[in-house]
Amino acid sequence: FLAWLDFRELGFDVKKLERFLAQEANIAVSPGYWFGREGAGFGRMTIGCPRSTVQHALDNLISAVNTLSESDK
Fold first, then answer.
1. What pLDDT, in 10s, does the model give residues 19-34?
2. What span, in angstroms and rounded, lies between the C-alpha atoms of 11 and 8?
3. What's the rounded Cα separation, in Å, for the pair 51 and 36?
4. N or C: where does the chain have the smaller number of CB atoms within 10 Å of the terminal CB?
């Protein structure tokens, strides 16, 4: 199972988004641009795993995005 996540609102180019997700959020997703130009700004996440694993990844993502929001203040 796969989930497509829309990160376009973050305003990152594709390489910055890859770094942010890997280094700040500590999650692994397939960059959307791998699947065509229209995929830029998206990430494809495999969710065919235990719910706790998906929840952990989403918690990491939320924390990383919240850190971005905090730096804007």
1. 999 999 999 999 999 9
2. 6
3. 29
4. C
